[in-house]
Write a structure and sequence with these properties.
Layout lengths: L16 E6 L2 E6 L6 H4 L6 E4 L7 E3 L4 E4 L13 H10 L8 E4 L4 H11 L1 H9 L3 H23 L8 H11 L1 H8 L8 H17 L16 E5 L4 E4 L5 H6 L7 E8 L10 E8 L17 H8 L3 E3 L3 E4 L13 H19 L1
Parallel strand pairs: 2-6, 3-5, 3-6, 8-9
Antiparallel strand pairs: 1-2, 4-5, 7-8, 9-10, 10-12, 11-12
Helix pairs in contact: 2-3, 2-5, 3-8, 4-5, 5-6
Length: 351
């Protein structure tokens, strides 16, 4: 699961499990479940964990257990998105037939990965066929995986091979998922049904060679800067659009902490709560954002204040550990204090 594609106000989810057979593979969705690599090594042979189900990469070639992850224990700049890892494994003669595929959430990276695994034989046929039509379709698939993967791994602000193709995928193919976020239904949604709808959209888009018209993109909603710090801003935002903050040369920054106040009428605790998204545009932005398990980072220090904070080296959020739908109780002022103190401590160490 890539946090950049998820609304932080929909992150809190009750545990649920679905199983479905997709061709010769079995997809097992366990909402919110996350295991350690050592645990995954005890799974049955022919197991694949996608995009954060296993908290780290695993390549057990003997028993054919593979965790295609790009969050824990990796450098985001050097890592490939999960769908890119899956695609290049298929190009390298990997066959997922009779595998169990484990998923803990849905986003574009996970859904595209499942579709690729489901269509591995078709991809093999395209590679084997030397005809011009097959070559064109395979090239289109290369562009799709690169564009969607780059957008997922680095963020939508990062240049990719085919921005229009990426937009068709994220806005059209994933429309059922996007609608569930907008309507705040994702936390209780049937994830298998959502997956099937998105896979069906992907099949249809593939058959149409992605010749799909899209409405004009809405302009980002304005954000309100609450605090400006050393290389970062804390801003109130209704659409939690980090790209808008990155691109605003006057009041933005390459590290954005976006906050959305939760009305008391919607608060699960009856107290004032905030939805947060913390991100920076790349690994090269010198703000010690994460990962959340590394002492001396912003996410680590926030987790010492409030259980539930975590994330990778370039993005993080608060996630309710009780699965009751709670948001963070830390105010923007408290966040600012933690971030500022973390940056000051890091600067002392490197000078």
């Amino acid at each position: 699961m890539n946090p950049e594609n998820i609304n932080p106000n929909n992150l809190e989810q009750p545990d649920s499990k679905w199983e479905a057979t997709e061709g010769s593979i079995r997809v097992i969705i366990e909402r919110g479940k996350q295991i350690k690599p050592q645990e995954f090594l005890n799974f049955p042979p022919k197991s694949i964990a996608l995009d954060g189900y296993c908290d780290g990469q695993v390549f057990d070639f003997e028993a054919q257990r593979y965790s295609f992850d790009h969050h824990a224990g990796v450098n985001r700049h050097a890592a490939r998105a999960t769908s890119e890892q899956v695609f290049h494994a298929l190009l390298a003669d990997f066959s997922p037939e009779d595998f169990n595929i484990y998923v803990n959430d849905l986003d574009g990276d996970t859904i595209l990965s499942v579709w690729l695994l489901q269509n591995s034989q078709m991809i093999n046929q395209l590679m084997a066929d030397q005809g011009s039509e097959s070559k064109l379709k395979l090239e289109k698939l290369y562009q799709l995986v690169d564009s969607a993967g780059v957008s997922d791994n680095y963020g939508p602000h990062h240049r990719n091979a085919n921005p229009q193709l990426a937009r068709i995928f994220f806005e059209h193919v994933l429309n059922p998922l996007n609608e569930s976020y907008k309507k705040k239904e994702y936390r209780t949604a049937d994830l298998n049904a959502l997956l099937q709808q998105c896979l069906s959209n992907m099949d249809a888009a593939w058959e149409k060679d992605f010749n799909i018209s899209l409405p004009e993109r809405e302009a980002p909603k304005p954000f309100k800067v609450l605090y400006t710090g050393d290389g970062f801003v804390i801003a109130e935002s209704q659409d939690m659009n980090t790209e808008a903050v990155y691109n605003d040369k006057e009041k933005g920054a390459k590290c954005a902490i976006l906050v959305k106040p939760i009305p008391l009428t919607e608060s699960k605790s009856g107290e004032l709560e905030w939805g947060y998204r913390i991100a920076k545009s790349s690994e090269f932005v010198p703000v010690p954002l994460g990962p959340g398990d590394k002492p001396g980072t912003i996410l680590y220090n926030l987790a010492q204040k409030e259980t539930g904070w975590g994330g990778g080296s370039t993005i993080g959020a608060f996630r309710d550990p009780t699965n009751k739908g709670l948001r963070s109780k830390l105010s923007p002022e408290q966040i600012y204090e933690v971030v500022t103190q973390t940056i000051e401590e890091r600067q002392k160490k490197v000078t």
